[in-house]
Specification:
- With 151 residues, the protein is of the alpha/beta class.
- It is 56% helix and 12% strand.
- It has one domain (2-148): 5'-nuclease (Rossmann fold, 3-Layer(aba) Sandwich).
C-alpha cells in the first residue's frame, strides 16, 4: 500500500507527549514508520516534502525525517502539471499552497492514503470539496483502517 506522510505526521513523534492527541498520534506514527522500514508500506516522497524538511530549523528532526524519506519507493517532482493540479486543489478547498502541493503529490503518486496531523487539511478533506482519489486521515485513522482491513 502506498502512503504519503506529510511533514506534520513525520514530525509528530517530536511533539509534546503530555498532550493526549500528540502522544496517541506519535505512537501510531511509530507503528506506521515501522511498516515503512519493514517494507509493508510503500512510502511516497516528493520535492515538496524535501523542501519543507529542509526548512525545519531543528537539525535532529530534519535528519530523522530525511532518513525516512530516503526509504521512499516513489518520488514526485514538482512540475507544471503538478503545480496546476495543486492550484485546482487549493481553490476548491481553500487550502494553503504548500498543503495543496502535498495533496497533488500524493495524488500523482497514486497513493492510497494521505496521512496528516494538520487539522486544516483534515477539515477540508472531510468537506468532500477536494475530490481526491485517496483517503485522508490522521495516523490513528490510518492505523484503525488497516486493522479493520479498510486501508
Amino acid at each position: 500500500m502506498k502512503i504519503y506522510l506529510d511533514a506534520s505526521a513525520l514530525n509528530r513523534p517530536f511533539d509534546d507527549h503530555t498532550v493526549p492527541r500528540n502522544r496517541l498520534e506519535a505512537e501510531a506514527m511509530l507503528v506506521i514508520l515501522d511498516g515503512v522500514e519493514r517494507r509493508r508500506l510503500e512510502l511516497v516522497s516528493s520535492s515538496v516534502l524535501e523542501y519543507e524538511n529542509r526548512m525545519n530549523p531543528f537539525g535532529d528532526r530534519r535528519e530523522y525525517v530525511a532518513t525516512y524519506l530516503s526509504l521512499a519507493k516513489t518520488f514526485v517532482r514538482a512540475g507544471k502539471a503538478l503545480l496546476d493540479r495543486a492550484r485546482e486543489i487549493e481553490s476548491a478547498g481553500g487550502l494553503a499552497p504548500l498543503d495543496a502541493l502535498h495533496l497533488a503529490s500524493a495524488e500523482r503518486a497514486k497513493a492510497e492514503w494521505f496521512v496528516t496531523c494538520d487539522d486544516g487539511i483534515l477539515k477540508r478533506a472531510r468537506s468532500n470539496k477536494l475530490a481526491l482519489p485517496l483517503k485522508v486521515g490522521t495516523p490513528i485513522a490510518f492505523s484503525a483502517a488497516r486493522r479493520k482491513g479498510d486501508g
